[in-house]
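DUF2786 domain-containing protein
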Amino acid sequence: MEFIWNDGGRAASGFVGLTGDCVTRSIAIATGTSYRDVYRELGEVSNKTPRNGVCTHHSEAYLKQLRWQYTPGRGQRFLADSLPKGVVVVHLEMPTRRRHGHFCTVIDHVIHDTWNPSEEPDYQIVGYWTCAAAASETPLPCPAPGSSQNAEQVTTQKEFDKILHRLRALDSTANNHASTEGEKRNALRMMQNLMLRHNLSREDIRDDDNVESVCFTRRACPVNGRRACAWEKWLAAYLVTEIFPMTGWYYGVKGNRTLFWFYGPVEDVQNCITLFRELLLTIATAAQLQYGGHSRGSGASYAEGYVRGLPRHNSPDEDDDTQPSEVVSETALVHARTMAVQDAARKWLRLECGVSIVTTYGSGRNQHDPDAADRGKRHGAKHDVTAENGRKRLGFS
């Protein structure tokens, strides 16, 4: 199914940090209501913050309150043909993974979410909600009849940034040893009032070098064959290490294909997928032209050498002591932020997608052609990975 990245207005409403907000996000997208209003109203229905998810019976009660009609899914696969056209809120579950359900909005058979659940083969439709007022052929949802939209309640990003700035300033005062007891009590009281008024928690006002405000996604790139070639795995590892260090990857099998999953900041993942596909085609074509294939024998050795020969930019040079201290310090700060984003991306993947990364190691191939590998390494070293436009030219020798 087609997929459009959509956070339901979470970032625009000023929310930061990691959260399992699929219910809030899907309802905000489907009804056209502001994310902040849906977040607040779901909190009132469930009598707790929706930050870490909402129980199914609470989400059902809320959607019924908005006059949406429920249709059982009867365990159908998550396919476009299983859903009606128009705006649909879908409840998905995996029979093999208990306590891992997901809500998403599908508009005219196009998924609007922060990741594409249709790429998971095990998802089944528990049920879905539709509303006559939201049924249309347009990808722009309209508010449900029972939803409450008050222009005075919609907070702009600029206004909410001011609120976050004020809360962080008060938090600094409350934790400053130089502040008097009266100043600390006053700061804490004002913080409590602001957080209650705007439905915030302390996690929402954390500011870890703006890492908390990064928007994440996950996308799959399928390749033929149930067993991924070693050079394909090395290529994925090369991209997330050298070119897009804030992204991560893993792989799995779906039918007769291997899926390479990339996750991390939205723009980085999109660019990483594009470059991965381009390099896959380039290397496989070069191996095919010279050795008749890329998955075994000399062709696989050539492809492995090609990946190993690709230029390295981000690998540390332990022998370089000539860099000024300012450059070293800046590099350390960039590395620290990269590590923070990587850690946040793994937490997001576990919280939002129910996926925990496990590192495995495999054995090498028995048939290795050193000459083909050396030739591939020479060709890979000539590849300009950083070129943005234009076709890559391969100079064979």
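thats it. The beta strands are 2-5, 69-77, 87-94, 97-107, 110-113, 124-130, 216-224, 248-254, 257-265. Residues 285 and 294 are 8 Å apart (CA to CA). bye
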